[in-house]
Write a structure and sequence with these properties.
By secondary structure, the chain is mainly α. The chain contains seven helices and no strands. The chain has a domain of 113 residues. The protein starts with a helix and ends in a 17-residue tail after the last helix.
């Protein structure tokens, strides 16, 4: 692929990605809204004592075995959040982001089609990449990173909080 064609492809790709953010947020809204529309959250947090709801089973049925609250016990103890709640939060985030990624990948493929075979260039090595990094001004990189992320102080936890019942 010649340089001009490659540069145009990169510019088109960057334009596509830049314009996709609105669609991304619509996808997120749609996927999160589906939990309300299908009654999943209502059933999960139903306070009616006449019907017993197995929250663990509901989470596993909706998101798969990875959503089993038993997988979140150590995190739950460290954060003082119920394993069921942690499972719901992580599973929802993973579900929504993976579905949104699938939509993005599909729309990208539909827009640009098959990108063709990727030519493997044996002349490019990691050593060349690392040596190109040595030419950068480290203080400038540090300043840029500091300005972007800011100073973040950790919040250490001295005592483990009590575990709350489900």
């Amino acid at each position: 692929m010649n340089t001009d064609k490659s540069r145009k492809q990169i510019e088109l790709t960057l334009d596509f990605i830049s314009s996709y953010n609105e669609i991304f947020y619509q996808d997120i809204t749609t996927h999160l809204g589906s939990f309300i529309q299908d009654g999943f959250l209502k059933n999960l947090f139903n306070k009616d004592t006449s019907t017993s709801v197995d929250k663990t089973q509901m989470l596993i049925e909706k998101f798969g075995d990875a959503a089993n609250p038993a997988n979140f016990t150590s995190q739950a103890q460290a954060t003082n959040i119920q394993p069921t709640t942690l499972s719901l939060l992580f599973s929802t985030a993973l579900y929504v982001s993976s579905r949104s990624w699938e939509n993005f990948a599909t729309k990208y493929y539909m827009t640009f089609g098959d990108m063709g075979e990727i030519a493997y260039d044996e002349s490019v090595t990691d050593d060349e990449y690392e040596s190109s990094l040595n030419g950068l001004d480290k203080e400038e990189i540090f300043r840029d990173l500091n300005n972007k992320i800011g100073l973040q102080t950790p919040n250490p936890v001295d005592d483990t909080p009590p575990v709350l019942p489900d």
